[in-house]
Amino acid sequence: MRVLVTGGAGFVGSHVVDELVTLGHDVVVVDDLDPAAHDGLPDGLSSDVSYVWGDVRDIDLWPTVLPGVDAVCHQAAKVGLGVDFADVGAYVSRNDLGTAVLLGALHDVGFSGRIVLASSMVVYGEGRYRCAEHGAVRPGPRLVADLDAGRFEPPCPHCGRPLRSEAVPEDQPLDPRNVYATTKVAQEGLCAAYAREHAGCTVTALRYHNIYGPRMPRDTPYAGVASLFRSAYERGEPPRVFEDGGQLRDFVHVADVAHANVLALTNDEPAPGPFNVCTGEPHSILDMARALRPPDGLSPVVVGGYRLGDVRHVFASAERARRQLGFSAAIGFDDGMRRFADAPLRWAVGPRPVGLDATN
Of 29, 111, 257, 334, whose CB has the highest number of CB atoms within 10 Å? Predict the structure, then answer.
């Protein structure tokens, strides 16, 4: 099978590529090595893959790439909360316009195979909560006054009482609470619209939870929190943990995330719809910072503060992915964090390929 992997030189995409190549598939990668995540040509690129160095938004790129493609794994995206709202244009352009241009090109060639989309837990906003009196509720956005006062837990929107957080299922109403989350909801909608209008096409939207592992980008505001903490330890500095460190997340190893993609691409039967890609076991941000702590005793520091647009708790049910995709995370939290503590982060082995512009 010939598989197109957009963003295939990136963190998750490169691991998907490796597994596809190991299984004997023909892989073509399109990647523009976004300078926000890449200092240059990254280490670890497969010699058995066709790399096309270009931007998914370039409509002139696709006529020579898409013929013969049987399945699409769409990883290319700008991720994370970014620096501030000034990033809004770059997020919408890279994520939503990029997806639209790709889908338009697929339409032009009559593509009707599988599309696997890298989505995210951020589409849920706050996770699932339950009030002892009012049952399942959706708290509103956290108020600046509460966050400034150190009141980080969202209260019941009806009675103001404390809530209990629960695992999020895929049918949870979507409630994006930052720019990145909003672009991910749009990507899911665009891909679903394409599938409805192209007989035989199925879309699997993989809602990644907090991914960590080798080849994470380092020292960038677009990197994941695990990478930021790793980089701090490497500099001999304690990681700075926002709020009180009690934020609950599901940390899933990149090898497991890659395997979920490969299952969605290659299983005998397609699996349309959204799937949480997670372990099913939540841990706090402070737990993660401590698990990465080096043996010299350097400890994370809880500094309070917060990031507007972030949420308090979001972790998920892994049941639907297990039942319909055959996916269960193989790497547990303790083992995975031990591996990641000294795993290689992304590093450049050469300059950006000639012709790639450093643009948004």
Answer: 29
